[in-house]
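Help!! Second protein's tokens look totally different from the first
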Amino acid sequence: MQFLRQTLTSHKTNKQEEYDGDEIYITNLDAIANPEPLSPGQSSSETSHTTPTTRKRKLQALATTSDTLIELERKKLKILENDIARGSNDDLLFFESLLPYMKEIPIDRKLRLRSKIQDLICGELEVVQAMLSNDE
């Protein structure tokens, strides 16, 4: 990790007024992440130069990564909004609370139970409709 010392030190001395102690700036991240092998007579300072084309590719890759992260954050936000909306629906929460018990019931009995629940709901809807028609 000694090869980082020169990069970090030179940037710190050049940008001292911007450094607040919480961040470390690395000027040549690609050279650190993907070091090129040195030939026998080549020094490490000769490999740190980047061409404009390489810099463009790096910026495009960074932009693509940023777009991907933004899209992921949007998806996470949508999921959280859906969870919040589901949490405010008392009926849905009630039926979800019954799921562990429903899983223990054999399939043929489960079908009968579903039918009974639907009959109960239909009966309640008929009562509500009758009350509404009596009020008019």
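Here's the second one for comparison:
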Amino acid sequence: MSEKKMSSSRKHHLKSLMLAIAKGLLEEEEREQEEERTRYMAENCPHLSMPRSMQELQELCREINHKIDVIDEERYDLEMKVNKSNKEIDDLKIKVQDLMGKFKKPVLRKVRMSADAMLKALLGSKHTVNLDLRANLKQVKKEVKEEDKELRDVGDWRKNIEDKSGMDGRKKMFEAEA
């Protein structure tokens, strides 16, 4: 409260002076823009003279088309520069966020949910299939091979050796081969 307050008439007077100065600056800026516009138009868009013959008209059309092509090329180039700059800006923003390290991982809650309920939550009403994993398992039937049967039928190896021992066993072996 040590500073003295300004009277309302003084405030009003200063406000009106500021507005007058701002108005003058705006008028001057508007006049400069108009001069710039007229200078640009005189430079880039010369006064159009209507051609009298068909040949002159065709030449004028070719000239205008050429100018349009040049302007389109410039517009395309500028557009690509802007897109590239925007992409670089986005990449730099991401890098800055990564360097700041202010990503907070949310605390995840444990949710008890069946596979059917989870698919229904993810897919919405599209999910109609019941997920019964045991029903989808393949049934495998075990086939018994003939070689395995023969090995089982042979039985105890000691009996085979006893049968083949001696002359009788050798005689049986030769008879079996013949």
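Reply: Different proteins will give different token patterns, so don't panic. Residues 50-103 form one domain.
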